[in-house]
Design brief:
The complex is a heterodimer of chains A (185) and B (474). With 185 residues, chain A is an alpha+beta fold. Chain A has 4 helices and 9 strands, in the order αββαβαββββαββ. Chain A has one domain: Jelly Rolls, CATH 2.60.120.660. In chain A, strands 1, 2, 4, 7 and 9 form a 5-stranded antiparallel β-sheet that branches. Chain A starts with a helix and ends with a strand. Chain B has a single domain, classed as Porin, CATH 2.40.160. Helix content of chain B is 12%, strand content 49%. Chain B contains 6 helices and 23 strands. Chain B has a 21-stranded antiparallel β-sheet that branches. In chain B, strand 8 and strand 9 form a beta hairpin. The chains are: A alpha+beta (185), B mainly beta (474). Chains A and B meet through helix 1, strand 1, strand 2, strand 3 and strand 8 of A and helix 1, helix 2, helix 3, helix 4 and strand 9 of B.
């Protein structure tokens, strides 16, 4: 029986040895340092007007529309949005220039940011493409997080005759997308 | 400090169980009574045995095919995020993290008095099994986002995981049909303590250039995650592992979620030189009928953004709930539902097969009397090849093992294995079975080359236990 306990002791020692040397030079606290920084790309607002849409109104007609936009004040963005880049693209095939404006409002309906774009007239229906990049770096991202309403406005600048009528051709298009740079710690 | 790390390592081992339950060392190791658990048709030489309760079979196994603890947590001064990045781009959807643990609560066996060709074995064990195929595309989108990935199809079907804790009551019959053939069968009743199954998922997410806007995002999803024994945990105040096990302890006896399973096996020895064995384990199903909660995400959606509709040419402020409407629409088209639904899950079925060549001294030390009932018929050496395969939903993992077995002394038998599988090409295992008086102690460990630093190992398993062997005075 003495031999038995000796052998069992020996085996126990081997097991202990194996397990006590099990992990060298490992630091599990590093897991706290992890940072995830995905970039999410999303299509945003779009609209399109034909030349006739502007023919119906007198003077210098404009169109304006707004959407609620509490997106950025929700926790997902509020805590983790680090920077954002908006891409706006106007495509004009009407032989008149336009003026476009995108406005950001906070919860008190106070304008906190605006993007102005001048779009030259098209000649012979050739598309005029005006890309606009709006970047919100880390120190300005608060503007976006305070936004609760976004308004888009497009106005015809009728500099010279003839005015647009129901036979006028072409369209003005608004496309937009954004890349949201996130940071999860 | 080292000890603390070891404890943490083993907790991780148990929590993030890794690899595939290959019992290459135990298989055909006939001095170890538990070999009947991997092949109910093994040749049994004992008259009777009884495991020391809770100490007869303790098994733990963890593996990760794509990376090691060392790759990730090595204290080498490299920024952790750099290491994560390195590993992430190395992994793919075929990589698996697999952890299992098994403790025999009771185990025993005896030879029939009426018919000495029959041997009965029985017992109760508890088992934890978790596997998770690396959800490659889902992880990529979480890690780097979808920016700049036009046309890339993210496969939502990459979510393929199952975790369960069960107890099993089993009874097996082993019969020596004739001099060369032994067959066996074992019936099992499983009792599920907790089960989470996410194995039938499909869907894609892709971004393409839009028709009306810059991009069009398209998602279609047919995803479900089933759970049983999970919902009721919410009502309990669980703050740690201990609370968790306390909460599920009584379910080990009767949870209401039961399953049935079967093992089959044979040993065929046409002559003294050659032996062929094969077994199928855990051909079984679990029926989940109580304490259920399932989550489903089904539907399809294509999004180009929000179209401003403009009421008319006006200076008035038009405020529309486009954004809220979009959210509502999305939730309606791809609803995330929580439902109670009865479901079935499969146990991971396992296959073992071996070709064995026996050689060396015949009837080795037959005359030596050690009084410990160690079988001494046959040759003192064996070499052979073993095949192991385990079935997981959608996939089968396989391993090939070459082994050498030797009866060193009457009180010491050993087996060395070399195993090739997707985890590693240098898996050397060592198993010993000792016999002193009537006590059998065995210790089986694979990947022993990495024991110097387990953290560098992709996979490691260890099994040990104590049995009491009844002398056969035949």
């Amino acid at each position: 029986m003495k031999g038995v306990s000796k052998i069992i002791g020996w085996i126990g020692a081997v097991i202990l040895m194996m397990f006590s040397s099990c992990v060298d030079d490992v630091d599990f606290d590093q897991a706290n340092d992890i940072v995830l920084d995905p970039a999410i790309e999303l299509s945003l607002v779009y609209f399109k007007f034909s030349a006739q849409d502007f023919a119906e109104a007198e003077g210098e007609p404009s169109y304006k529309d707004s959407t609620d936009a509490d997106l950025f004040s929700q926790d997902f963005f509020e805590y983790n949005l680090k920077a954002a880049e908006f891409y706006i693209e106007h495509t004009n095939t009407i032989n008149k220039p336009f003026f476009a404006e995108v406005l950001f409002f906070d919860a008190n309906d106070i304008e906190i940011y605006s993007v102005d774009v001048s779009i030259p007239a098209s000649t012979n229906g050739e598309p005029v493409i005006i890309p606009t990049l709006v970047y919100f770096p880390e120190d300005q991202i608060g503007i976006l997080k305070n936004t609760s309403k976004i308004t888009a406005e497009i106005a015809l600048i009728d500099e010279s005759p003839p005015p647009l009528d129901e036979n006028s051709e072409g369209s003005i298009e608004f496309n937009s997308s954004a890349i949201f740079y996130m940071e999860f710690k | 400090m080292i000890r603390k790390k070891c404890i943490l390592f083993f907790i991780l081992l148990i929590l993030y169980q890794v690899k595939a339950q290959n019992r290459q060392l135990l298989y055909n190791f006939r001095e170890i009574p538990q070999s009947v658990m991997v092949n109910p048709g093994v040749e049994i030489h004992q008259k009777a045995y009884a495991g020391i309760p809770f100490m007869s079979g303790i098994y733990a196994n963890a593996g990760s095919s794509g990376f090691t603890m060392h790759d990730l947590f090595s204290d080498d001064g490299v920024n952790f995020n750099v290491k994560v990045n390195r590993i992430l781009y190395d992994l793919n959807d075929k990589d698996i993290i697999d952890v299992s643990e098994q403790i025999e609560i009771l185990f025993g066996g005896y030879r029939s008095k009426k018919d000495r060709d029959n041997f009965y074995s029985f017992g109760v064990y508890q088992e934890l099994d978790f596997y998770n195929y690396w959800p490659n595309d889902i992880a990529r989108i979480a890690y780097e986002g979808n920016a700049g990935q036009l046309y890339r199809k993210y496969d939502l079907g990459d979510l393929n995981a199952q975790g369960e804790i069960i107890t099993a009551v089993h009874f097996g019959v082993n019969r020596k049909v004739n001099k060369s053939l032994t067959v066996g069968v074992r019936g099992k009743i499983y009792n599920s303590m907790i089960n989470i199954t996410a194995s039938r998922n499909s869907g894609t997410f892709v971004t393409v250039p839009g028709e009306d806007n810059v991009y069009r995002h398209m998602i279609n999803a047919d995803m479900e995650v089933h759970t049983s024994g999970y919902a009721s945990l919410w009502d309990k105040n669980i703050t740690g592992i201990r609370d968790f096990f306390k909460s599920i302890f009584w379910r080990g006896f009767f949870s209401g979620n039961l399953g049935l399973g079967m093992d089959l096996g044979f040993t065929y020895s046409p002559n003294d030189y050659w032996t062929y064995t094969g077994s199928l384990q855990d051909l079984g199903m679990m029926f989940h009928i109580t304490d259920l909660e399932s989550y489903t995400l089904r539907g399809a959606y294509a999004l180009e953004g929000i179209e401003f509709l403009f009421g008319q040419a006006t200076d008035d402020e038009f405020l529309n709930n486009y954004w809220d409407d979009l959210k509502d629409d999305l939730e309606e088209q791809i609803p995330l539902d929580t439902i109670k639904t009865v479901y079935t899950s499969f146990r991971p079925a396992k296959l073992n097969a071996a070709v064995i060549h026996n050689f060396g001294n015949l009837r080795y030390r037959k005359n030596y009397d050690c009084g410990c009932d160690v079988d001494d018929s046959g040759f003192e050496n064996s070499v052979g090849l073993q095949l192991f395969a385990i079935h997981r939903p959608h996939r089968i993992n396989a391993a090939l093992t070459a082994f050498y077995y030797r009866r060193i002394f009457n009180f010491l038998r050993a087996k060395v294995t070399y195993t090739l599988d997707k985890y590693s090409y240098n898996n050397v295992g060592l198993g010993i079975s000792t016999h002193f008086a009537n006590i059998n102690f065995y210790l089986l460990a694979d990947n022993i080359l990495t024991y110097g630093n387990l953290a560098k190992s992709n996979q490691a398993s260890v099994q040990f236990g104590f049995n009491y062997i009844f002398e056969d005075k035949r």
